[in-house]
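wait is this the right file?? whatever heres the structure
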């Protein structure tokens, strides 16, 4: 069944939160709607779903990959081109430690940036409903719903105090 995207615009956070409650009473889940606002409300203030981030995993994986690549490069280079100086071993740990540290940090930084982009869902190529008044203090409540429930959602948004309801262009 085809889904439609609707957006209700609210002037007050209380009305928007009430609309979220009305949508749940209409049978929608918290995954079916999302709030758009320019104000950083505390998490859960509007009744939105809790999103758990796993951003801390990305630097750890990047650091491990960077360390592994750095050790492979330095050990591979020293084994491929053995230069025995004064009877010392071919693999020199102090020289490898510096490159390993740099590789670890580079991997952690690069994966942190990638993690931020991934967790922020960027880039987002699908065009979503938006209204410029959201930057002026309005609160948008974007709902993705089956065609059969569009009228129920519009009624719930209107009764909650939406000043305007927008539909995505088909």
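ok assuming it is, sequence goes like this
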């Amino acid at each position: 069944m085809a889904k439609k995207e609707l957006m209700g615009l609210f002037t007050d956070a209380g009305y928007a939160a009430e609309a979220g409650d009305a949508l749940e009473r209409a049978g929608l889940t918290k995954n079916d709607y999302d709030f758009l606002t320019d104000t950083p409300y505390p998490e859960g203030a509007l009744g939105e779903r809790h999103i758990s981030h796993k951003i801390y995993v990305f630097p750890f994986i990047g650091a491990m990959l960077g360390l592994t690549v750095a050790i492979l490069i330095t050990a591979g280079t020293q084994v491929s081109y053995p230069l025995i100086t004064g009877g010392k071993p071919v693999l020199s740990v102090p020289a490898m430690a510096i490159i390993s540290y740099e590789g670890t940090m580079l991997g952690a930084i690069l994966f942190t940036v990638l993690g931020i982009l991934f967790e922020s869902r960027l880039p987002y190529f699908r065009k979503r409903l938006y209204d410029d008044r959201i930057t002026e203090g309005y609160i948008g409540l974007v709902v993705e719903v089956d065609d059969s429930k569009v009228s129920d959602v519009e009624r719930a948004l209107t009764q909650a105090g939406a000043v305007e309801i927008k539909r995505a262009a088909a």
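The chain is about 45% helix and 15% strand. so i think its the right one actually
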